[in-house]
Structure formats: C-alpha cells, structure tokens
Design brief:
single chain, alpha/beta, Rossmann fold, 2 domains, seven-stranded parallel sheet, 13 helices, about 35% helix
Length: about 350
C-alpha cells in the first residue's frame, strides 16, 4: 500500500493555507508520501476556498483534497463565532471516520494532523489506531498559555473577567487577567468549555507541531519541553518547524513576482525599527478601537505596517465575506487619513489593505 498522511484543518482560508504549507514541507522531506487534506464545510461565509484549492491541486499533485458532507448546525445564541466552528467539527466526526476508513483502503495512513479547533477528531484517530498530532500555528508563547489553561482553571472558581491579578504562566512574562483572550473571559460560556476541552485533548495527542523555531521563543519552548505547562501529566513531544510562509498569488500561479511596495519601503528602514500589526483574516475592530490603535501608534513614534480592515457590521461580528477597501478618511481620527502629509500610503493585497505610516 502507498504511504499517506492526512491533514484536517479548520474550514477557513487562513487555516487551510497553513495546512497546505505544512503539507508542502512534509513532501519536501518525504516526496514518496501522498498528502490527503479533508475539507469540512464552512459554518459561515468567509469566502470561497475553491480557487485556492484548484491552484494547489494543479501545482502539487501529491496533495489530494476530500470534501466532507454538509451537516446541519443547531441554532446558537453565542456571540463567539468559534462556537460554530467547534460544533461543526464535532458533528463532522462520523464523516471524518468514514473518510479515514475510505483512505485507509488504499493507503497506509501514518498520521492524522489536525489544527487546534479539531479537538473532537482525536478520538476518531485513536479508535482507528492512527497517531493524532496537532498543528499549532500561533507560536510557542500562546501554546504555553493554552496548555497551562487547565491548571489555571483548577486554581479558581472565578472567571478571568472577575479576577484582577497577574497570571504566572511558565515560559511567559506575567499576564494581566484583563488581557485574557475574549473567548476565555467567562468560564460559564460554551466557548470556554470548548477551548478547555481542546487544551486537554492536545495534551493527549502523539505530538504538537508548532510554527516557530527555538531561537525565536527559547523560554516558552523550554518551559513546554520541560513539562512545566502540564504539571499533572506528561507533555507530548513538540516539533518546531517554522517559519512556514505562504507564497503570494503570483508565486502560486507561476507568474513573475513583483516586490510589493510595502516590502521595498521596509527594506529601507533600520533593522528592528518597524512594528507590524495584523489580526488575521477574521479580525475586525470597531471605529473606536481603530482610533485607539491609530493614536497609540502615533504616540509610540515608531514606523509601522498596519493591516486595516472595515469595522464589523450590525449583522456580523467578524469578516464573513470579502471586504471592500476601507475608507481611511472615515475610519481614522481627523488628520490621520491618507490625505495628510505624513507619507501614508494604502497598499492593496489579496484580501487586506496594508497601511504604511511613518
């Protein structure tokens, strides 16, 4: 039988691209393998992944995509879009099980590699005697926080939003409870339970693949490797293989790549002098928050690159469709739009607008 590895990403373009880059890295070192990527239906409309999948299928024939069937999602009143994602992936477990059985008829599956939302999938891998690994793209620092979550959960009966203290997490500097990620603020919400279960599941996996490298985050990596973030049991081995960098659209299509204006500008700046702000393809801020960020950046006196996206609408708390070009004159405080003489340039990328201000 042929040898294969199965990858299972969360159904959003950012997660899919990360998994594809991991697949390419695996194939670089093990070209005889076949990579199978399972695509679950999206719980909300965050843009079609079909063009990207078609390009990868053409350029990398060793990667095969499998679409899982649609499932019916129950209604939810949760304000967190992540709740829908967790629920969709949980309901897809029977489809995942059937897909793995189907692939295993003609391939010897060496591993199932999932991202952090796919916590319910580990039980399927264990039942089929397939080693289950997690692919963690947020870096070792947040992984340390994530693994230590169960320990913090057990030390108090209060929610993070009701605490006013500093969290002492191995491998990290003290973190104020007020800086806790929004989905983790209230321990009584379903999303908190989902993330806590995901942390527990990750500890039970065969290993954790992290998009980082040791010299970048030595303190956090050492704390995780030494077992300090999982004091009550063994920590799975971690594999640092970053940085994984997705190619541009021109590179993916085989065209000649022009150097973006922002990179030409960046090359002219002193080393280590530019702050980069990007909050992901689903990250959006209110106009008030954008104004606070802009004022903070101005007061810092630092050069920066800032990915600016339109604020959320009344219907959606996140960017669920392709975004139009933001009107910076309206979004930024007076005197800080592109009309001022501070050499501010707006640069169009595939899905985001890069604002260069220095």
């Amino acid at each position: 039988m042929e040898e294969a590895v199965v990858l299972y990403p969360t159904p959003a373009i950012g997660h899919l691209i990360s998994m594809v880059e991991l697949a390419k890295l695996i194939l670089t070192h093990h070209p005889s393998l076949t990579i199978h990527i399972l695509i679950a239906p999206q719980p909300y409309n965050a843009g079609s992944t079909a063009p990207y999948i078609a390009t990868v299928s053409t350029t990398t024939p060793s990667i095969t995509f499998h679409y899982l069937p649609n499932v019916s999602l129950p209604p939810t009143s949760s304000p967190h879009h992540e709740t829908l994602t967790f629920e969709l992936l949980r309901l897809n477990n029977p489809n995942l099980h059937q897909s793995l059985l189907s692939i295993s008829k003609t391939y010897n599956i060496h591993a199932l590699i999932m991202d952090s939302f796919c916590s319910h999938a580990l039980s399927i891998a264990v039942n089929l005697n397939i080693p289950g690994y997690y692919f963690y793209t947020s870096g070792a620092g947040f992984l340390a926080y994530f693994l230590y979550l169960l320990t913090m959960h057990k030390t108090t009966t209060k929610s993070f939003k009701d605490l006013n203290t500093l969290l002492d997490i191995p491998g990290l500097p003290p973190i104020s409870t007020s800086d806790t990620p929004k989905p983790l603020l209230d321990r009584n919400e379903k999303i908190y339970e989902n993330i806590l279960d995901c942390s527990v599941s990750t500890v039970k996996s065969a290993g954790i693949i992290v998009n980082t490298f040791e010299s970048l985050e030595p303190r956090a990596i050492k704390a995780i490797s030494d077992g300090l973030c999982v004091p009550e049991g063994p920590t799975p081995p971690i594999y640092c293989l970053g940085p994984l960098i997705a190619p541009s659209s021109n590179e993916r299509s085989g065209g000649e790549e022009a150097v973006p204006e922002c990179l030409r500008w960046l090359d002219l700046q002193p080393s280590g002098s530019v702050v980069y702000l990007c909050f992901g393809s689903l990250g959006v801020f209110s106009m008030e928050q954008l104004e606070e960020i802009a004022i903070g950046l101005e007061r810092s006196g630092l050069r920066f690159l800032w990915v600016v996206r339109n604020p959320p609408t009344q219907e959606h708390s996140l960017a669920v469709t392709a975004q139009s070009e933001p009107d910076l004159d309206l979004l930024l405080p007076p005197g800080r739009g592109p009309s001022v003489s501070k050499m501010m340039r707006r640069l169009q990328s595939e899905r985001e607008d890069l604002l260069v201000w220095h």
